[in-house]
Amino acid sequence: MASITLDRLAHSYLPNPTSDADFALKEINYNWEDGGAYALLGPSGCGKTTLLNIISGLLVPSKGHIKFDGKDVTHLQPEERNIAQVFQFPVIYDTMTVRENLAFPLINRRVPRETITERVNEMVEILDLGDKADRKARGLTADEKQKISLGRGLVRYDVNAILFDEPLTVIDPHMKWQLRTKLKDLHRQLGHTMIYVTHDQTEALTFADKVVVMYAGEVVQIGTPEELFEEPAHTFVGYFIGSPGMNVLPCNITGRTATVGSTAIDLVQPSPASGENLELGIRPEFVTLTARGSEGIPVRIDAVENIGRFQIVRTNLEGHPVNALLQEGEEIPADAALRFDPARINIYKNSHLVRRGA
Ligand SMILES: Nc1ncnc2c1ncn2[C@@H]1O[C@H](COP(=O)(O)OP(=O)(O)OP(=O)(O)O)[C@@H](O)[C@H]1O
């Protein structure tokens, strides 16, 4: 296992990049701790694969360095980096049995026979493949084959890191949560440095101790799942994490009052932010509905969606959508007014957090 340092790392696919916009990966500085479980989370095209390929050695960055345990590996080939990778689709040998597939990465590295048997047995048990262990991979389901792929990544005990690139894409939805939880357990048991690439927030938040959120080539926040929820550093994080995401409303600010259109919202504390490109962010969990006439902000209700234990109330405030998350069965007044918990109102300037809820 190793720590991984990204030292002023950036990448452009263009031969002569001139502006920030030319970089598929904008400058990032970060130290990923030895034995940590990290997720790279972001929408399609945000630069996740570019970063993963730099770590694995498939791509040499146009700027900066990458270090494993302080040793510069920027120009080392993938096979010289001693990492394991699990891809979206199973990479296994159909003609080999499950056991033979799992043993293969160890045989390649001339691991002693007894150790191989021990590790393979351990993987078979961990991945619940006991009843299939001596069958050829050819006849197995896509789920089972991908489990073997995961096992082939995890079976090596001496790797610097294990990289997972959307490994649950082919897995059946009902199996996904099982494998997600399993991977988390495996990380606890095995203690490898693990980096998991996904565009699915549930996968990222379940698996990782720290989530690296990427947007348009930029790392916009690195934090624990709680930090991303409580204190989104960028409006994109607020919008992308949470279901539904944070409400983001363009506003002006004077003193302790934010104004959305002609609606004044009391921030309780004066905000340090002023000028243009300001936005108010509040999560639906901290929006309540009251009857009009009390102190709330009158709104139009567009829709109510029941999602099990909660209901999402979709409202419209002066042309801007605002969602409120209410408990199942909680009463929704016919003439509704919104109330924002002032302690949970964040203020953003140019999409970046400048003031978190008091
Ligand atoms: N080989 C390449 N040559 C030129 N541009 C590329 C190349 N690979 C990726 N890009 C561009 O770099 C940006 C980041 O792509 P990347 O594949 O890293 O994103 P991603 O977050 O992994 O997306 P996805 O989830 O769709 O794989 C995109 O704009 C993409 O079009």
From TrEMBL:
PANTHER family: ABC TRANSPORTER ATP-BINDING PROTEIN (PTHR43875:SF14), MALTODEXTRIN IMPORT ATP-BINDING PROTEIN MSMX (PTHR43875). SMART domains: AAA. The lineage of its organism: Bacteria, Pseudomonadati, Pseudomonadota, Alphaproteobacteria, Hyphomicrobiales. Keywords: ATP-binding, Cell membrane, Membrane, Nucleotide-binding, Transport. It is found in: Cell inner membrane. One of its GO terms (molecular function) is ATP binding. This is ABC transporter ATP-binding protein. Its main location: membrane. Residues 4-241 form the ABC transporter domain.
